[in-house]
């Protein structure tokens, strides 16, 4: 039961409350995707599908069997706190998706971005590990953790390439 409650609270805050708060605060939604499907957007959409499938699978039987509630909540909470701090630090630059022509894109160096380049992706991996401790190691956990690691590596590499190319262009002119 704990794994289900933790996951639903996280999902509600991360994928409903934060985007709504962003909309109220900045007057636009944080979803920024290109009109034509590219690899970055496809990976985003596939990961969203995996998260939806994981949520349905988690709510279905069998009941999750926790490995360690203490370690699970510690990892899950630390991942959530780290990720939420990163999102709040990004302010108006936070978004789902990547578009080169987005006028609101900016390179963020405050908050946890002073410590590492991709704190949101790190937080997703830590959250998935915490969820594994809360629910036990079964096919649902393997689906969540594997897809989260692949997603995080792929998207962080794409974002690094984007910012490195942009920095090179700025120095060339």
Protein model, in words:
- With 173 residues, the chain is mainly alpha-helical.
- The protein has a single domain, classed as Four Helix Bundle (Hemerythrin (Met), subunit A).
- It contains five helices and no strands.
- The chain has helices spanning 2-26, 39-59, 69-90, 119-135, 139-172.
- Helix 4 packs antiparallel against helix 5 (139-172).
- It is globular.
Give a short overview:
69% of the residues lie in helices and 0% in strands. With 173 residues, it is mainly α. It is globular and about 50 Å long.
Topology:
Layout: H1 2-26, H2 39-59, H3 69-90, H4 119-135, H5 139-172
Major β-sheet profile: none
| Chain-averaged pLDDT | 90
What order do the SSEs take from the amino end to the carboxyl end, as H and E?
HHHHH
Quaternary status:
single chain
Distance between the termini: 57 Å
Q: Work out the count of structural domains.
A: 1
Uncertain runs are none
CATH architecture: Up-down Bundle
Helix content: 55-70%
Strands, total number: 0
Using the coordinates above, name the CATH class.
Mainly Alpha
Keywords:
Four Helix Bundle (Hemerythrin (Met), subunit A); 173 residues; mainly alpha
């Amino acid at each position: 039961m704990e794994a289900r409650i933790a996951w639903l609270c996280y999902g509600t805050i991360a994928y409903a409350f934060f985007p709504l708060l962003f909309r109220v605060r900045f007057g636009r939604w944080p979803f920024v995707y290109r009109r034509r499907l590219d690899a970055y957007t496809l990976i985003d959409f596939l990961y969203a599908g995996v998260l939806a499938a994981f949520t349905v699978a988690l709510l279905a039987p069998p009941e999750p069997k926790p490995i360690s509630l203490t370690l699970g909540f510690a990892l899950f909470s630390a991942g959530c706190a780290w990720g939420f701090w990163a999102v709040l630090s990004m302010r108006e630059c936070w978004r789902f998706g990547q578009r080169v022509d987005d006028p609101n894109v900016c390179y963020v160096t405050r908050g946890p971005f002073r410590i590492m380049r991709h704190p949101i992706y790190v937080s997703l991996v830590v959250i998935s590990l915490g969820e594994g401790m809360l629910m036990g190691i079964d096919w649902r956990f393997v689906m969540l953790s594997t897809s989260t690691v692949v997603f995080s590596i792929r998207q962080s590499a794409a974002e690094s390439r984007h910012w490195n190319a942009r920095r090179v262009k700025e120095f060339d002119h």
